[in-house]
Write a structure and sequence with these properties.
This protein is mostly helical and 220 residues long. The chain has a domain at 31-179. Helix content is 65%, strand content 0%. The chain contains six helices and no strands. The longest helix has 29 residues, at 94-122. It starts with 30 loop residues before the first helix and ends with a helix. The mean pLDDT is 81.
């Protein structure tokens, strides 16, 4: 006959164990944090629409675009980590979580430097918005892969989870850019307007003066 192992833990007068199991806390991301992050994102979206409506050019100014890319990163990184992390592993909490969110946010915001400079340099464009949507798709794909690597390095995620994490940030920032009236690609380049060299302008000025002088002499 096989007997069950004897329970030597302390018991109360009724023979029940007085030891309670330690409950695991999966995350410190509560509903309150989610509401705060959601309100922050909605606030940024509202500001984007307001800037579009009040701007003479019909889109948010450059300083607002840069500021939006930076401010969007921390709440999206924090919310994204709460959803894509491995539930079987203990989450990052406290100051360690804060530092990782800040580092990942800086890396995500820096991804837009690729959009701003690489296509314009490679294809000799005056602005990144002049590239075609096909090229923009390639650029955004590269940004997504690099963002996934940044997410994997920051939070030790699996690569598919990193793709989802970085994708959340990129999709939302593109959405905010559209709300604010920013043209990301497909804009027609400005027509080329040749300028007259200063020497030619001087020659034309002298010719005009000579013609005027000759005309005045004939009238006399």
């Amino acid at each position: 006959m096989v007997h069950a192992p004897q329970d030597d833990s302390p018991k109360d007068s009724k023979g029940r164990s007085v030891l309670k199991p330690i409950e695991r806390q999966d995350d410190d991301f509560t509903r309150r944090h989610l509401i705060i992050a959601g309100l922050a994102l909605l606030g940024i979206a509202a500001v984007a629409v307001a800037l579009r409506m009040t701007s003479d050019s019909g889109s948010a100014p450059l300083w607002a675009q840069i500021l939006g890319v930076i401010l969007l990163a921390p709440p999206l990184v924090r919310v994204g980590y709460a959803f894509v992390r491995d539930s079987e592993l203990a989450p990052y909490v406290g100051s360690e979580l804060r530092n990782r969110v800040l580092v990942c946010s800086a890396l995500f915001a820096a991804l837009w430097l690729i959009y701003a400079f690489v296509p314009a340099y490679v294809f000799q464009l005056d602005a990144a918005s002049e590239m075609s949507w096909a090229i923009a798709g390639v650029v955004f794909s590269v940004m997504l892969v690099l963002g996934a690597l940044a997410s994997v390095a920051s939070f030790e995620l699996e690569f598919p989870s990193g793709l989802a994490h970085a994708g959340l940030y990129l999709v939302f920032t593109i959405f905010i850019a559209i709300l604010s009236g920013v043209t990301l690609a497909g804009r027609e380049p400005a027509p080329f307007q040749p300028t007259t060299p200063p020497a030619a302008v001087a020659v034309q000025s002298v010719q005009a003066q000579m013609t005027s002088t000759a005309a005045s002499i004939r009238l006399r």
